[in-house]
Amino acid sequence: MKKILITLIVFALAPSISLAGPKIEVLHWWTSGGEAAALKVLKDDFAANGGEWLDMPVTGGGGDAANVTLKARIVAGDPPSASQIKGPTIQEYDQEGVVAPYHIDEIAQAEGWDNLLDPMIAAVHKCQNNSGPYCAAPVNIHRIDWIWANKEVFDNNGLSMPTTWDELNAAADTLKAAGIIPFAHGGQPWQDATVFEAVAMGLGGNNYYKNCYVKLQENCLRSETTVKVFDQMRKLQSYTDEGSPGRDWNVATGMVIEGKAGFQIMGDWAKGEFTAAGKSPGWDYFCSPTPSNNGYLYNVDSFIFYKTTDPDKVAGQKLLAKLMMGKNFQKVFNLYKGSIPARLDVPMDEFDDCAKKSNADIKTAGEKGGLLPSFAHGMAQGNTIKAALQDVITEHFNSDMSSVDAANALADTVLANM
Amino acid sequence: MFKWLEKNLPKIVLAPSVGLISWFVYGFVLWTFYISFTNSKILPKYELWGVGQYVKLWKTHKWLIAVDNLLIFTVLFLVICTVIGVVLAIFLDQKIRAEGVLRTIYLYPMALSFIVTGTAWKWILNPTLGIQKLFIDMGFENFTFDWLVNRDMAIYTIVIAGVWQSSGFVMALFLAGLRSIEDEIVKAAKIDGANLFTLYWKILIPMMRPVFFTSFVILVHISIKSYDLIVALTQGGPGISTTMPALFMTQTAFHKSQVALSAASAIMMFMAVAAVIIPYLYSELRRENVS
Predict the structure, then answer these.
(1) Is the pLDDT of residue B115 over 50?
(2) Residues A112 and A52 in one domain
(3) Which of A221, A237, B91, B148 is the most buried (most CB within 10 A)?
(4) How many domains does chain A have?
(5) Could you tell me which of A201, A202, A191, A196 has the C-alpha nearest to residue A165?
(6) DSSP class per residue in chain B
(7) CA torsion B189→B195→B201→B205, rounded to 10°?
(8) Does the pLDDT value for residue B3 go beyond 60?
């Protein structure tokens, strides 16, 4: 009896005798094929450096379920050590006071992040209104404004990749006349918004985009240019097929891969679908940016590090931040994910043509003032404004609302939600 | 000691459940009520702010669409479910041979979760995959049934899926009600010369008032709560045309980072349910006191 009691006590106490060392608890939603493989690189790196990784994956594409879990834990006073996050939300959580003190700033200063990142992207990851210490680390840069086209469909109809929106409309008309669905689109609000922002930046210009969707100026939102953007959206809608509402983005990509449709406007994660289907750029499909004036809509995946007092967890946060911005990790991760490294000095030889183009374009766009945060993917605005804009865009796309009404609704909803 | 235990045992056994329910259900309803008077955005805050959220709620375009859809859905859902349920119950009450089998078939949809129902009907109603394609392939080239992707008609597809799921349940309630009526009444009516139609329309259906009330209460509360059906069938689309209050509440809290506004919409839903349940409870209790 006594022996049993002692054994039980030992087993009960055993878990608390754990190794001291860097520990990290990471909340994320990268659970599908390519993403999970990409994250494994980081996990292995962390373990190789003596750390203990506690994985907290929450499935659900856009991170919706993960965000709910995250909020529940923050309210309970027990945030994870790190979580996947997007731009402006970093500032939102900082204002709630759950991020300070900013442990990883030490690493950021030591490694010289200011010199390794584009200044606009670096600012996104600094807390206290984008000008204080670093509190988050970027892992990649996604480009939103791509056209993905089926080469065979385009060749058979004598089309080349359009360089202006008029050319795109003409190409779509040709395809429609030939009986092929011109524009493969998934009718979900975020996809409607993705196309809208590419059109807005392309038709309206970089300054228009900045004034309307980053600075939210009312007279910009109500302007003639916005009406033109909505007109083009109406035109694009006429090129979609009946099954479009509710369709998932990867099903639409599938339509382009199989040649059922001509092209899709989607971010660079669509490239993963082509690769998984064994297609190569230039041979089976074309990738080119949507027509614009050196514009580049970016979306950065980041990890934020929350407040903690446990010294093991602080060590874990610092180690993870250091590894995340490491050259090797940035290269391998982005090869798997389809995006390009956030760090500017990673060699691009192993990346494919589309990624190389993206990497070259980002430097040009940065110099010419065309490097713009995507609002549809939560980089330019927080969730409230993003959702408000999205609702108007998707309502216009799915009804016969006039462009003038839509432009005014856009301005009204921004004012109501400021 | 034992006598006291014996007398109070039921109360002791029930106490944990009552305690848990009081805290986790009613306690949190009160919490939501409190939050709806604050200005919480991404995380709950506890400083009182006033009734601004309610004012903002009733000015929100999406909420007005949601309320509209709720009214359309509830009325149609209620009426069609009840009619189909009563008719099916009357047919099954005719002491037919395969009654057991038919009853099970009609009741089966209720065993499915709304997500399964929504997904299956999404495929059936999709113009490029389902009914429309079937008819076009059969040769009716101009046949269209694209309600699902039409922003004005999409709400009616939700009614179709909801009715399919719940009619069986209403049928079961009414069948039980019909069966509980004594044979003497039916015999007396037949002796008086009532035909089948008069028998049902003038005598048996009016006798089933309590069953009407029960099914009404259950259907209304299913309708106000409906969330998984919308998510599976249309995701609130096309655009935002099939938004319903429960979907609005979830989206506002978690995707729009506006916890207080979402709490206000939740309290509105709560009041809508209370407006139905409280008169029902009152009438039931009054009847008990009288009898």
Answers:
(1) yes
(2) yes
(3) B148
(4) 2
(5) A202
(6) -HHHHHHHHHHHHHHHHHHHHIIIIIIHHHHHHHHTTB--SSS---SB--THHHHHHHH-HHHHHHHHHHHHHHHHHHHHHHHHHHHHHHHHTTT-TTHHHHHHHHHGGGGS-HHHHHHHHHHHH-TTTSHHHHHHHHT-TT----GGG-TTTHHHHHHHHHHHHHHHHHHHHHHHHHHTS-HHHHHHHHHTT--HHHIIIIIIHHHTHHHHHHHHHHHHHHHHH--HHHHHHTTT-STTTT--HHHHHHIIIIIS--HHHHHHHHHHHHHHHHHHHHHHHHHHHHHHHH-
(7) 40
(8) yes
A111 within some domain: yes
pLDDT of residue A12: 65
**Assigned token pair, A209:** 């985009």
**What are the pLDDT digits (tens) for B5-41?**
888 888 889 999 999 999 999 999 999 999 999 988 8
For β-strands A23-28 and A52-57, DSSP reports them as: parallel
Q: Is the peptide bond before B109 cis (omega within 30 degrees of 0)?
A: no
Share above pLDDT 70 across residues of chain B, in percent, rounded to a whole number: 99
Instruction: Indicate whether A203 and A214 sit together in one domain.
Output: yes
Q: CB of A300 within 8 A of CB of A124?
A: yes
Chain A residue numbers touching B122 (CB-CB < 8 A): 246
Interface test with B, best of A181, A237, A241, A384 (most B CBs within 10 A): A384
Residue A73 distance to chain B (closest CA, Å):
11
Residue of B nearest to A98 (CA): B43
Question: Looking at the partner chain, which of B127, B234, B257 has a beta carbon nearest the beta carbon of A383?
Answer: B257
Asked if residue A47 and residue A73 are part of one domain, the reply reads yes
Do the Cβ atoms of B239 and A397 come within 8 Å?
Answer: yes
Judge whether residue A5 has pLDDT over 80: no
* A96 C-beta neighbours (distance < 10 Å), count: 14
Q: Does B149 touch chain A (CB under 8 A)?
A: yes
Distance CA A253, CA A238 (A): 18
Query: SS3 of A363, please?
Result: helix
Q: What count of other Cβ atoms lies within 10 Å of the Cβ of residue A357?
A: 18
- Chain centroid to CA A309: 31
- Considering the domain architecture, whether residues A174 and A318 belong to the same structural domain is answered as no
B128: contact with A, CB 8 A cutoff = yes
Single pTM value for the model:
0.84
Nearest beta carbon to residue B241 from set A93, A188, A398? A398
Measured between its terminal Cα atoms, the distance across chain A in Å is 69
Q: So what's the pLDDT on residue B288?
A: 72
DSSP state for residue A16 in the 8-state scheme: G
Q: How confident is the model at residue A411 (pLDDT cuts 50, 70, 90)?
A: very high
Q: Does domain B52-290 have CATH number 1.10.150.130?
A: no
Nearest alpha carbon to residue A62 among B246, B154, B233, B251: B251
Distance CA(B54)–CA(B41), nearest Å, equals 15
Q: At which residue do the structure tokens 């007396």 appear?
A: B188
Same domain, A290 and A413: yes
Q: What H or E segment, with its residue span, contains residue A183? A: strand A181-183
Q: Is B142 on the interface with A (CB under 8 A)?
A: no
Query: Which residues, listed in sequence order, are joined to residue A81 by a DSSP beta bridge?
Result: none
Q: Cβ of A110: how many Cβ atoms within 10 Å? A: 10
Name the residue range of residue A340's domain.
22-140+299-366
Cβ contacts of B69 on chain A, cutoff 8 Å? none
* A335: amino acid identity, one letter: L
- Taking contacts as CB-CB distances below 8 angstroms, the residues of chain B near A188 are 235, 237
Contact A208, A200 (CB under 8 A): yes
Q: Which residues of B touch A396 (CB under 8 A)?
A: 239
pLDDT in tens, A73-107: 888 888 898 999 888 888 888 888 888 688 888 88
